[in-house]
Amino acid sequence: MEVGIIGSGIIGLASALALAEAGYSVKVVARELPGDESQNWASPWAGAGILPYPEGKGHDLQINTFKYYWALAHRDPTSGVQVVDVTEYFDDREDDSAIWYKRLVPKYHVLDAKELPEKAKLGVRYQSMTVNPAVFLPWIQSILIDKGVRFYRAEVKSIDEARSTLKTQIIVNASGLGALDIAADKAVVPVRGQTLHVKSNSHEIVMFQGSHYTYQIPRMYSGGVVIGGVSQEGSRDQKADAVTRADIIQRFKLLTRGRSDYSDPQNHIQDIVAFRPARKGGYRLEREGSVIHAYGFNTLGYTYSYGVGLRVKELVDLILGRSKQPTSRL
Q1: Cα–Cα dist 272/223, whole Å
Q2: pTM given for the model
Q3: DSSP calls for 26-63
Q4: What is the C-alpha radius of gyration for the chain, rounded to an integer number of angstroms?
Q5: CATH superfamily of 2-320
Q6: What digits encode the pLDDT tens for the residues 224-261?
Q7: Which residues are annotated as a binding site for D-dopa?
């Protein structure tokens, strides 16, 4: 049975993988394809840490994704996936009662108060993974092509146009920000992110969440890390802002108590500006007739990706009468 997918971002590619592994014939149509460096899609620019979210719904999606990348990091380092230590700080909670993934991640423990930066109320440390999109996206496309998945470069504006282009009845709408038009979903909104790729030999994710959003994420094989960031809902400004860049550098310096100072311009590799595909009210992952919608994951596309692919496969099975209606696991 043939299935068409709109979008070759991380959600579209993960869906293609899960479907191909289940024996489906898969076609993907997208305006951008792996290897493209356009700012019009988010997947190549993501920091791409596999970081479960304390309040995020869809725990099973995140668990399945974590297991996939964990196995991949140990099986094939050419994929651009690596295991790293993670330190998370919070100033919006006193304890780790809401951190459900403490039973999932290896080496999880709560930090002593003396290890916390200024204003942090909680710190935890564990192991997870990072993904280098510049390596991973072409790698997974190659895997998919070997499994018979076909890719078509085209911009489609509707489900009907996708069906006409791909000649498939079942469509997976993983179009990201394109869902604003393709699904006529007015809840879809771009969230501008600005980060800085800098030279570093660090192999640790550092994340501060709560009153500000500051982080460092290693990028395998690049000789550096990505530091950020900002989340500017609705902004479409493609240019890197010097004031924002300086603020990110200063925030991270304070976060690490001066141990990591990325203010030297000679260490700057690249400014990154991209637009995360968010959705007010949360992501959409559901069947609508013979269409499966999978979009709106904002900053957590990689964290949800393979779990979403498995759920998409379940919904395709349901359309074809190959399984019973899956129960909600949100």
Answers
A1: 16
A2: 0.95
A3: EEEEESS-TT---TT-SGGG---EE---TT-S-HHHHH
A4: 20
A5: D-Amino Acid Oxidase, subunit A, domain 2 (3.30.9.10)
A6: 999 999 999 999 999 999 999 999 999 999 999 888 99
A7: 215, 276
Strand bridging mode 214-219 / 204-209:
antiparallel
Phi-psi region of 306 (alpha: psi -120 to 50; beta: other; left: phi over 0): alpha
Contact 206, 227 (CB under 8 A): no
Question: Contact, 317 vs 172, CB < 8 A?
Answer: no
Tokens in use for 131?
């993904």
Binding-site positions for FAD: 156
Q: Would you put residue 119 in left (φ > 0), alpha (ψ -120 to 50) or beta?
A: left
* Residue ranges of domains in the chain: 2-320
CA of residue 48 relative to chain centroid, distance? 5
Picking from 150, 187, 132, 172, the residue whose alpha carbon sits closest to that of residue 7 is 172
pLDDT band at 324 (very low <50, low <70, confident <90, very high): low
Q: Which residues are annotated as a binding site?
A: 156, 215, 276
Q: What is the pLDDT of residue 56?
A: 76
Q: What is the four-CA torsion angle of 239, 242, 245, 249, rounded to 10 degrees? A: 170
Rounded to whole angstroms, the Cα distance separating 34 from 141 reads: 7
The Cα 216–Cα 304 span in angstroms is: 20
Q: Which of 12, 133, 43 is nearest to 80 (CA)?
A: 133
Strand, coil or helix: 321: coil
- Burial classification of residue 200, based on how many CB atoms lie within 10 Å of its CB (0-12 exposed, 13-18 middle, 19 or more buried): buried
Q: Using alpha carbons, select from 203, 222, 150 the residue that is nearest to residue 5.
A: 150
Contact 185, 19 (CB under 8 A): no
